From TrEMBL, chain A:
GO cellular component: plasma membrane
Source domain of life: Bacteria
Any one GO MF annotation of this record: transmembrane transporter activity
A single GO BP: amino acid transport
Major subcellular site: membrane
Compartments in which it is found: Cell membrane
Protein known as: Amino acid/amide ABC transporter membrane protein 1, HAAT family
A Pfam match: BPD_transp_2
TrEMBL record, chain B:
A GO molecular-function annotation: ATP binding
Protein name stated in the entry: Amino acid/amide ABC transporter ATP-binding protein 2, HAAT family (TC 3.A.1.4.-)
Pfam families: ABC_tran (PF00005)
Gene Ontology BP terms: L-amino acid transport
Keyword hit for Protein biosynthesis: no
This protein's UniProt keywords: Amino-acid transport, ATP-binding, Nucleotide-binding, Transport
Database matches in Gene3D superfamilies: P-loop containing nucleotide triphosphate hydrolases
Keyword check for rRNA-binding: no
């Protein structure tokens, strides 16, 4: 079952893209800024987990170091907004975009300085194992990536629709002024959204590192995730995941059936077509935002 | 005069001011939008602030609710000066601002919008009771409770905005242009409810309006603002009778010399 294996590995990649895209959309919806360092957040989350888990560094148990890394990235996101981005309030969008691009470079070199510029693999209990269903052989890591992403999606869905803080996050992104009038501490909500984006990126990083290797420039796949977010409909959380999955699924099939050199452009060709024919993305959430 | 007569001759006791604004100045960038405004809102009353576009009414409200910071002056709420406090502190203290243009959360349901009104509260039972109270004043909202607020009509959104404000259980409610863009019938309905809320729930109201007649009819006291200053202050009934207010804000004119209304003859449309 060749096709099934391609689908599973495509889905697994797509989940990672989708989770990074989710970080883009979370921050964009709430603060109208695009965090181009989102891919590097993922890389940093992965390296923190490597630093905590691998025997060469701290050697903590995997199941302890993952929540720890997620927590550290959450705090990192929160403090980044509190200390840096809040000071940018009132500056143009371009300033924030440039700042996050620069931040991406900084994170890449900091990670390189700490963990080296070579590729590292995470000593993950799910890496390199296989699942057999009759004649079908699937990588445990890939299946785990898909399962974790589905679970995380369900958790986030309930968080945003059932909890007071989650609804307040939606409210603040739909009408910031009204949120102020209702006594929602909008600035703190923004910091918490950066924290959430950091935590989701860390989970994406652990998943990414579990099914391959990681190096400091791994964050550059954030560009692909950005494309995924645009395809899905920038501003829609389900759209981000859907876009990620679509891009992830295109890749293995393209490289299988299309000549090398052309296959890599397929996700971007789709991005191009979407921008031409459906500029708001597949799951566009079009409503006019009041100022 | 005997002592007894002396006491009887005293005027009705005036309720204490809930809010006292003193010499407030606020800027929009370099432009001074309110220039030394002082006013009082007394407990249990409806106080209206009238004025044309750009008179500074909305700026005054935004400064009270903490969305804008004043350059100078004080806002006494009870004994505390809340000038320059963050909006969430002001809401917690019991002042809620129902903004101009309704400003609901368009993609949240009616119920979620009401829930956000109670964001600063954590007494689940009280919140549920207040939600039922809001539904009893605005039954249409109960029917639409699962509907996205952005799909409601203008009048229903205004009801939702007022209901959402009530959910914070305010002592003082700042209502900015509740009649904006509504049909005369709906304006009447909304103002009747505002009056009832004031009487039955004991919410003190500060009401900014361009629709001077409706506002003065429900209000106890009124201020008139022009170019960032208070130019008149009096009982609402007396303001309704005042020649200046009648001419500039109520559109009442002395019988015209020409004896007929000019707009009927005019052809301004090309």
């Amino acid at each position: 079952m060749d096709v099934l294996q391609l689908v599973v590995s495509g889905l697994a990649n797509g989940c990672v893209y989708g989770l990074i895209a989710l970080g883009f959309v979370l921050i964009y919806k709430a603060t109208e800024a695009v965090n181009f360092a989102q891919g590097d957040f993922m890389m940093l989350g992965a390296f923190i987990t490597v630093g905590l888990t691998n025997q060469a560094w701290l050697g903590l148990p995997f199941w302890l170091s993952v929540p720890l890394a997620v927590f550290i990235m959450g705090v990192f996101g929160y403090l980044l907004d509190l200390i840096v981005l809040r000071r940018m309030f009132g500056q143009s969008q371009i300033a924030v975009v440039i700042l996050t691009i620069a931040l991406g470079f900084v994170l890449r070199f900091v990670a390189g300085a700490i963990w080296g510029h070579e590729t590292v693999s995470l000593e993950s209990p799910i890496a390199g194992k296989e699942l057999r269903f009759g004649g079908v052989v699937l990588g445990l890591d890939e299946v785990a990536v898909i399962v974790v992403t589905v679970l995380l999606t369900i958790i986030l869905y309930f968080y945003f629709n059932r909890t007071k803080l989650g609804i307040a996050m939606q409210a603040a992104s739909q009408n910031q002024l009204a949120a102020y009038y209702m006594g929602i501490p909008v600035k703190r909500v923004h910091s918490l959204i950066w924290a959430l984006a950091g935590a989701v990126a860390a989970i994406a990083g652990v998943l990414f590192a579990s099914k391959g290797t990681i190096d400091p420039s791994a964050g550059l796949l954030g560009i692909k995730a950005f494309a995924a977010a645009v395809i899905g409909g920038f501003g829609s959380l389900p759209g981000a995941l859907l876009g990620g999955v679509i891009v992830g699924l295109i890749e293995p099939f393209a490289s299988r059936y299309i000549a090398a050199g052309y296959s890599q452009i397929m996700p971007y060709l789709l991005l191009f077509l979407i921008l031409v024919f459906r500029p708001h993305g597949i799951l566009a959430q079009v409503h006019r935002k009041k100022v | 005069m005997t002592a007894l007569e002396d006491i009887l001759a005293l005027p009705e006791p005036v309720p204490a001011p809930v809010l006292a604004v003193k010499n407030l100045e606020s800027y929009y960038g370099p432009i001074m939008a309110i220039r030394g405004v002082s006013l009082e809102v007394r407990e249990g009353q409806i106080v209206t602030v009238l004025g044309a576009n750009g008179a500074g009414k909305t700026t005054l409200m935004k400064t009270i609710s903490g969305v804008m910071n004043p350059q100078k002056g004080n806002i006494f709420y009870g004994n505390d000066d809340i000038a320059g406090a963050d909006p969430d502190k002001v809401v917690r203290a019991g002042i809620v601002h129902v903004p101009e243009g309704r400003e609901v959360f368009p993609l949240l349901t009616v119920e979620e919008n009401l829930g956000m009104g109670a964001f600063v509260r954590s007494d689940a039972d009280g919140i549920r009771a207040d939600q039922e109270m809001v539904y009893s004043y605005f039954p249409i909202l109960a029917e639409r409770r699962r509907q996205a607020a952005g799909t409601l009509s203008g009048g229903q959104q205004q009801m939702l905005a007022i209901g959402r404000g009530l959910m914070a259980r305010p002592k003082l409610m700042l209502l900015d242009e509740p009649s904006l863009g509504l049909s005369p019938l709906l304006v009447k309905e909304i103002f009747a409810i505002i009056r009832r809320l004031n009487r039955e729930q004991g919410v003190t109201m500060m009401l900014v309006e361009q629709n001077a007649r409706v506002a003065l009819e429900v209000a106890d006291y009124g201020y008139v603002m022009e170019l960032g200053r208070i130019v008149m202050a009096d009982d609402a009934q007396r303001l309704l009778q005042s020649k200046d207010v009648q001419e500039f804000y109520l559109g009442v004119q002395e019988q015209s010399q020409r004896g007929q209304k000019r707009w009927k003859q005019r052809k301004t449309w090309r």
